[in-house]
Design brief:
Length: 314
């Protein structure tokens, strides 16, 4: 880039950022399946919500489909990290597909909660974004007795059959702060509502949001590496804005607009849980070209979580 800003001094990197254990596991499942069985390997939905990751796996021989009817009878298919409804698993069985499940174990935890609560006679409110594959998968663990709310307004208009026996679960990639507001509204309307034993919002989502909150004290602008379809990446941008800092979601360095940084002395960079570190480094190089002379990494939580591979790919 030919542009150079005299005011721009430093890039500040959030810690932690980028891939979480669930995303690493999902990508590794596809790569191991390709290595073991050869191409093609079918994947239902984008394995994770990142255009660059999907393009890389497609180049290696993965075929991404939205409908299992697109998968040949008896072929191998991988379920994405977001999880799927029971009817999708039933469809896979009907087509005699060999299934490898890349559902994040933290999403599976919510699926187990839903099944247990329904078996115990509870109605369930799910906090999440309509149309998101994780929400569709979790809501699809039962045929009846679940309601979706996206905001406090939805809570106010919600009518349930058994207000004395109701529980809530949430999408794992939501804003922690926004979710707490909705939970408060649910508890006010339904005093008997049962909460999960442990928050459904995943450790990686929480850690990355906390890191961005800390980063806003040190920077003038925040750049979030992530795809537009990535829920957790969008939430990181929103968190920065809530704390008074301009923030932009960029898929890669190619999407960086120099004018965003014109008045900035310090630029923060983070990445959603499905964004590769290579994209962060590319964006870092682009910001340095605009004039930033130094790079500083903020202290943050160290993550050591690892999830096992499914049977057949160990």
């Amino acid at each position: 880039m030919a542009v150079h800003f005299e005011k721009l001094q430093e890039v500040v990197l959030a810690e932690p950022r980028g891939f979480c254990a669930g995303v690493e596991r999902a990508i590794e499942i596809v790569e191991r399946a390709l290595e073991k069985f050869g191409a093609p390997i079918y994947v239902r939905h984008e394995i994770v919500h990142n255009d660059h990751v999907v393009a890389d796996l497609r180049e290696k021989g993965a075929i991404f489909v939205e409908d299992l009817e697109e998968v040949p009878l008896g072929a191998r298919v991988i379920m994405s990290a977001h999880g799927v409804a029971l009817r999708v698993r039933e469809h896979a069985a009907l087509r005699q597909l060999e299934v490898f499940d890349a559902t994040c174990p933290l999403v599976t935890k919510v699926h187990v909660e839903v099944k247990k609560l329904r078996a115990d006679g509870y109605e369930i409110v799910m906090i999440g974004h309509s149309g998101h594959p994780e929400v569709e998968g979790t809501m699809g663990q039962t045929d009846t007795g679940m309601y979706l709310v996206e905001d406090v307004q939805d809570v106010e208009t919600l009518e349930v059959k058994t207000p004395e026996k109701i529980a809530y679960v949430s999408q794992t990639t939501l804003s922690v702060d926004d979710t707490q507001v909705i939970v408060g509204a649910l508890q006010k309307k339904f005093p008997a509502i049962l909460a999960p034993k442990k928050s459904d919002i995943c450790y990686a989502t929480q850690n990355r949001q906390d890191a961005v909150k800390d980063m806003t004290k040190h920077v003038d602008v925040v750049l979030v590496v992530g795809s537009p379809t990535s829920s957790n990446s969008n939430r990181l941008r929103e968190v920065a804005e809530r704390f008074g800092v301009d923030a932009y979601l960029v898929g890669s360095a190619a999407e960086l607009k120099p004018e965003w940084l014109k008045e900035a002395a310090r630029v923060g960079i983070t990445a959603g849980a499905s964004a590769p570190e290579a994209l962060v480094q590319g964006l870092l190089a682009a910001v340095k070209e605009l004039g930033a002379a130094s790079v500083r990494k903020l202290p943050g939580v160290e993550e050591h979580v690892r999830f096992p591979m499914p049977k057949g790919l160990n």
